[in-house]
Structure formats: C-alpha cells, structure tokens
Amino acid sequence: MRSSAKLVWSGGLIFLLALFSVSQAGHPALTGNYNLAESKVSYIVNHAFKKATGISKSAKGKARCNARECEVLIAVPVNTFDSGDSNRDLHMLETVRAALFPVLTVRGNIESSLLTKPSFTTQFQVEFAGKTATVSGVVLKLDAAGGVLKATGSLTLRLSQFAIKPPSLLGLSVDDEVPITFESTWQR
C-alpha cells in the first residue's frame, strides 16, 4: 500500500517533468510556460502472492522553459490513486502517511541539451511521505506536434528512499522497488 502511493506520487511528478521536457525537445520555439492538461500515472506493487496496480489521473503541473533549461513542478494528491480495492487504497494512504503529507511533489530542471533528443534519462527531486529523495534513471520519451506536448516514461521508486516500511501479507513484505509509468499532455 505504501509502495502504491509512493510510486504513484513519484510517477505523477516525473511524468509532469517529462511533459515539460517534451516542450523543449527539438522544438526551441516552444519555450515559455506550460500547464499539465492530462496525465495518467500508474504504479505496480509486487508481492510474492499478488501484484497490485494503482492509477491516478489527477496530477497538476507547470513548466517554464527557456533556452538553457526547463524548470518543472508536478503535484499529485496521494488520495487520487485507485487500485480497484478501496481497502488496499486506504491501507496505502495510512502507510505513506497521507493525512500528514497529502501531496507527492516532483521538481526538476532539465538541461536544454537533453531536450533536443526524442528520449533520454534524467533525475528529479521527489518529495513523498514527508521525505525528499533524488530519483535517478527516469526515462523520458517526448513528442511535440501541433502545439501539444506529450511525454511518456518510467522510473522506479524505492520505498526505503522515503522511509516507508513495506507492508506485508502473510509474513512477506512487498518489494522495496515500485515501478512507475506515466503518460502526460502539456499545453502552452
């Protein structure tokens, strides 16, 4: 459960950053300010007996791009992730301390040299469950057409990065690593 919320928030932030990056990728004329128009962030929590997937479509984000870099800020309310099991989602909210830290935040600066590529790997600062960690290995794929910027990608969060004790079932804990995928659309 903690893994789910953490991954979802992290994923939301990361995908917003990715969208911001798309605006610059090979398109210097797209400099300016962007808002996250649509997003889908998914996380997977793995357990020896089960796999759970949670999805949020409620991320908010802004990006400001100039000739040197894009500055990105993404926020995802933790309570917007849905795994299809309300009991599991409630446990996840408790595990990630959502009552005290209701928003997952992703911040980062993407250098313009990376934005000229259709895909690249970068890192972001993720604030989740009251802790901040640098998440490296964020893979971003960008596509810009007709004034709309799309970013997709993936990353892996570790619950231990955010001091989240992995929940257990039948004496076995969920994996520390939580894969996250994201899709996002940004508009000027």
Keywords:
single chain; 188 residues; alpha+beta; Lipocalin; eight-stranded antiparallel β-barrel; two-stranded antiparallel sheet; 3 helices
Rounded radius of gyration (Å): 16 Å
Looking at the structure, what is the overall shape? elongated
Order of helices and strands: HEEEEHEHEEEEEE
CATH topology-level name? Lipocalin
Give me the secondary-structure category.
Answer: alpha+beta
CATH class category name: Mainly Beta
Quote the average pLDDT.
83
Provide the number of structural domains. 1
Q: Can you say what the CATH homologous superfamily is?
A: Lipid/polyisoprenoid-binding, YceI-like
Q: CATH architecture, please?
A: Beta Barrel
The count of helical stretches stands at 3
Helix content: 10-25%
- Could you tell me the number of beta strands? 11
Biggest β-sheet: strands ordered side by side in the sheet: 1-3-4-5-6-7-8-11
Strand content: over 45%
Q: What low-confidence regions span 5 or more consecutive residues with pLDDT below 50?
A: 1-28
Largest sheet: 8 strands, antiparallel, barrel
Descriptive notes:
- The protein has 188 residues and is α+β, with helices and mostly antiparallel strands.
- It has a single domain (2-187), classed as Lipocalin.
- The chain has helices at residues 2-24, 86-95, 112-115, and strands at residues 32-46, 51-56, 60-65, 69-77, 103-111, 119-128, 131-145, 148-158, 168-169, 172-173, 177-187.
- β1 and β2 form a beta hairpin.
- The longest helix is centred in the N-terminal third of the chain and has 23 residues, at 2-24.
- The radius of gyration is 16 Å and the shape is elongated.
